[in-house]
Amino acid sequence: MAGVGWRDAWQDALYGPQGFYRDERGPHGHFTTATHGTAGLVLAGALALLAREQGLTHLVDVGAGRGELLEHLHVVDPTLRLTGVDVVDRPQALPTAVEWVTSPGGRDLPDSLRQLSGALVLAHEWLDVVPCTIAQVDPRGVLRALDVDPATGAETPGLPVDGAELAWAVAHWPATRPGDRVEIGLPRDEAWAALLARIHSGLAVAVDYGHRGGARPLQGSLAAYRQGREVAPVPDGTCDLTAHVAMDTLDHDDLLDQRTALRGLGVSGATPPFALAAQDPKAYLAALERSSASAALTAAGGFGDFLWAVKRVG
């Protein structure tokens, strides 16, 4: 099969009619994220506190999966208005109070998601699955878009990168050494800007694995996962495809790692006092479980390395 641009192949593999994210099992059928289980409950508590501190009454989860984080949020703060946004229809297990909007997928947002007021708008691991052009410097030093065979993942050099994408690469991810790869983050910047434009007043937070200028991955970060294992990136719809986000290029007021963000919201990972084990064993085990989840959310080399790009609107 002839190769197509990585961006188009990636879009179809995740969001096309047979796309990975349309599978009835959802992402949870293949891997665990920070929104699942006790970690998700701890994260929900921190986000609910952030909303209260900012005087916000509506939380919108963009890229909500099957609503796992929203379920936790409904438990920790039933007074919050909650809205999920994803490519699938409303998950049946969601509490009736939780609203749901179906999205086209990728960078595109639903038309009905507009004029959000008093909202904490969360993009948790959304931008890393917004497809972008993947390019590589050829032997003559020319940055070329890579084409890919959707059936095998085999790559071939395509046309030279030009226009706005080349301008983005020169400004944010300059590469001149033959073989170096660039994941051109312009579609992520534009998707984030489009989301900000939907907010009348509130706070937008993008949370993702990412990097900053001066520390870009020379060979890129494109990766694929299936059933809990990393596999070769093949855009055939059978695996997740993700690439880290150039977080510093997003419009933001603050950019900080998740450890700092969550510790500022009371998530410490401290072990509960052992005396509690004798006084109330069940409470001790529950506290220990939350402590372990908090430690995982802030751990170096894991979820703690997420970056938070924060933008105040209105």
UniProtKB/TrEMBL annotation:
Keywords: Methyltransferase, Transferase
Family matches, as InterPro entries: NDUFAF7, NDUFAF7_sf, SAM-dependent_MTases_sf
Keyword Methyltransferase belongs to the record: yes
Annotated GO biological process: methylation
Stretches that traverse the bilayer: none
GO molecular function, one term: methyltransferase activity
Presence of keyword tRNA processing: no
Name of the protein: SAM-dependent methyltransferase
Annotated source species: Pedococcus aerophilus
